[in-house]
Amino acid sequence: MISDFHTDILTETTGDLPQFYYDNNIITAVFRGERTFAEAVKIAERGRLIAFEDVGYDDFDIEKLTAFNPIYVGITWNGENRFGFGCKCSEGLKPEGKRLIKLLNERNIAVDTAHISKGGFKDIIDNAKIVVNSHTCFSGVYEHKRNIDDYQIKEIVERGGIIGVTFVGYFMTGDKRCKISDLIRQVDYFCQKFGTDNLAIGSDFYGTDFLPEGLKNYEGYDKVKEYLSVNLGYKNDDIDKILYKNLADFTKRIKRLNNAVDNIV
Questions:
Q1: Is 14 exposed, middle or buried (0-12, 13-18, 19+ CB in 10 A)?
Q2: According to the model, what pLDDT value does residue 258 have?
Q3: What pTM was estimated for this model as a whole?
Q4: DSSP conformational letter for 165
Q5: Furthest CA-CA distance within the chain
Q6: What torsion do the CA atoms of 178, 179, 184, 186 make, to the nearest 10 degrees?
Q7: Please, which residues have CB within 8 angstroms of residue 14's CB and are 6 or more apart in sequence?
Q8: What is the pLDDT of residues 198-210, one digit of tens each?
Q9: Contact yes or no for 104/131 (Cβ under 8 A)
Q10: DSSP symbols for 188-253
């Protein structure tokens, strides 16, 4: 079994998802881009464990969103929208964004801090009941505008949230090549500082054109497991937490809060 906090397969492919996506704890995000919310709803209908990435739609409808019992909702992408500002900016959430968080709180939907500005992160921490970061890497290892600082990790961990370390090569290296060891540096950095209970994988498969060598699909999880075990001596129980259990437990918790447990594996 595997878990994945963030894949863009729904918005990058058409037709039914492979059965594999229904048999594992894989959260499929609906990315806004140039779409209307009505178009996003049609895309979400193809998935099972749904999330929404950037909900700054002009035709946004909280009731239609709630009907999907999403695991998390991302307020912005990298720039500005009706609710706030992304990581290219510094400003916090707009008043409408803070009102949206209150609505998400009422529905026990986690607020995703991936892509948010530093000011927006503070507003989310101050207002949201459940806080996560679905796909990121860590500034303590490599500086990138999409990576998060130690204080942000600490805020999420202290609130019982989950952070998905991503496979996006741009967030790990300035070279043209990215290796599994670059990802492992990110994983080990987190675990050495914050333990193994709040880390998961947020691959961003289908959402990036730069992945580490050997990590092009879910078969790569075995290589991550082997590297952590053989090269760094991680225990199998801790590896299982990172690759599957932490996120599976979190998913079940969110679904129970929404009375929508759906044979989650």
A1: exposed
A2: 85
A3: 0.96
A4: E
A5: 51
A6: -10
A7: none
A8: 999 999 999 999 9
A9: no
A10: HHHHHHH-SSSEEE---BTS-S---TT-SSGGGHHHHHHIIIIIT---HHHHHIIIIIHHHHHHHH
